[in-house]
Structures are given as C-alpha cells and as structure tokens.
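TICKET: design request
STATUS: open
ATTACHED STRUCTURE:
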C-alpha cells in the first residue's frame, strides 16, 4: 500500500457509502492473496472461488464490524467458500480432521521447481484443512493471532495452540513424506524461508 493511500477500513467505509471505485481498489489489493489461498487447495475452479468470495464480501459487507482486519474477514469468507466447494464435490467435510489429500484433491505442482518446495507443498496438503489454512495464513499472509482467530472462527487462545500444533504437524509431515533426506533437512532447517519461497511460486 502506497503512503497516503486509504487503508482497508477507509476503503470499506467508502464502499459502504456507494463508492464502487473504492470497492474495486479493495478487491485489487487483496486479489492475489485470495487467489493464492485457493490455488494451494483445489485442482480447478480457482477463478470461480475467488469470484464467489468477493461476491460474498459484497453481499455481506455491512456485517464487517471492524473487530479485526479486513483481511481476516476476507479469509474467513474464503474458508467458508472452500468448505462449500468441497461439500458440493463430495459431502460434508470436517476441516479439523480431513486434508486436501484425504479428499482426493491434488492441485498442480507445475509451478514448483525446487524439491524443498514440492515437499513443503505436499506436507501442507497432508494437514487437516484448518491446520493447512492456519499455517499458510501465518507464513504467507502474516496474519496475527487475533486475525487468525477471526478467519478461523475460534478464540485467540484456541488459535495459539492450534498454530503450535499445526507447525509441529507440518514438520512431522515433511519428515514422513520426504524421499530425499537432504531436501528434508534443508526444508526443516529453513522452514520460514522455504515457506516464503513457496508463497512466491504459488502466486
């Protein structure tokens, strides 16, 4: 965001007042993050899910009360859209127990070039969906504890323990899924760095 530009809350207030350009600016500011959210979890239909998320934001914009950031609110909507997408494909999904891998979803790894990144992506997709979401929003989008709590619909205390469990589970998954011990060591030794590199590759 450029210095002097309106922040998300100012844009949202202007949008509530009928300023369509403010709404377009708000969408443009967060489009890449929402697109990335879905690209790591579904095989196809990312564009439709992104559109559905922003449409739900349009329809429910007056329900945002400003208790946390607009980003947290938006990712909370994206999570609901993701679970509805899974339900439409198969059945009700338990995001605390079932992973994208469990649900038979294998998004393309074509954009991922290094073995460490491929390993990390497979490990993320092996986590229960809410753990995957928690870790990605923490590493990729830099959400705070309160923001994660709002996005996931849990208390700040719960989200702290969930994040700790998710990070531990991610490390265990990397060790379990690795076929190259050197890649596993490299990934674990610089997990923050590889997470940021994967963010760039996912888009």
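STATUS: resolved
RESOLUTION: sequence designed for all positions
ATTACHED SEQUENCE:
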């Amino acid at each position: 965001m450029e210095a002097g530009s309106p922040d998300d809350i100012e844009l949202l207030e202007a949008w509530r007042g009928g300023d369509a350009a403010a709404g377009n600016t708000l969408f443009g500011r967060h489009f890449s993050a929402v697109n990335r959210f879905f690209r790591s979890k579904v095989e196809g239909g990312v564009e439709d899910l992104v559109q559905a998320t922003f449409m739900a934001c349009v329809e429910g914009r007056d329900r945002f009360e400003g208790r946390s950031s607009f980003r947290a609110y938006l990712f909370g909507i994206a999570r609901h859209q993701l679970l509805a997408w899974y339900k439409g494909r198969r059945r009700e999904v338990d995001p605390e127990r079932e992973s994208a891998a469990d649900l038979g979803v294998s998004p393309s790894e074509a954009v991922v070039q290094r073995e460490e990144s491929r390993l990390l992506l497979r490990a993320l997709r092996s986590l229960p969906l809410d753990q995957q979401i928690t870790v990605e929003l923490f590493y990729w989008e830099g959400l705070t504890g309160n923001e994660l709590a709002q996005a996931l619909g849990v208390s700040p205390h719960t989200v702290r323990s969930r994040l700790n469990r998710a990070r531990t589970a991610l490390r265990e998954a990397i060790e379990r899924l690795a076929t190259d011990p050197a890649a596993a060591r490299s990934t674990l030794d610089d997990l923050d760095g590889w997470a940021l590199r994967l963010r760039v590759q996912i888009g």
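CLOSING REMARK: DSSP finds ten helices and no strands in the chain. Residues 156-177 form the longest helix (22 residues).
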